[in-house]
Amino acid sequence: MPIGISLEREERLLTIRKAKLGDVPDLHRLINYYAGERIMLPRTLTDLYENVWEFTVAEEEGKLAGCGALKLYSQEIAEIRSLCVDAALKSKGIGREVMECLLAEAEGFGLKTVFALTVAPTFFEKLGFREVPRERFPTKVWRDCLRCDRYASCNEKGVTLDLADRPAHLPDSATETAEVSS
Description:
single chain, Aminopeptidase, 5 helices, alpha+beta, 182 residues, globular
């Protein structure tokens, strides 16, 4: 699914697009809501402004409904991070639509693998990811995990998807129940 699409959903218009600078305050609010719940890592406004290009957003009726980012690590691997949906809009397929765009973007870059660290591995498994030890991603662990105050008691699971094994279209059963990743 190309980025910049609009979908009719239950008489509402859902737009999936790349984030703009004007989205940063809403991204900050949404991501840090989940950080406050200890579900994902917090992001500063500065970090979001510097990396806004990594984000894809879902917008419904002019309001940010969800987001996710594709963090590049090399010419072969990237991380899906900060994937979340407004709590009032969960289980409506918004996270799945954002994921579809992020995975298409990863394929467009010619990446081989995407991974995530998440407290919701089941959501990712429905999309074809498989669970792996988080230590498989030493750059991620060194960059983010070692500085995290929850490192010693982390409850996140590592999941990965080899893009060559990705189904042509995500199954309808992949509707999210709790899509969040650091």
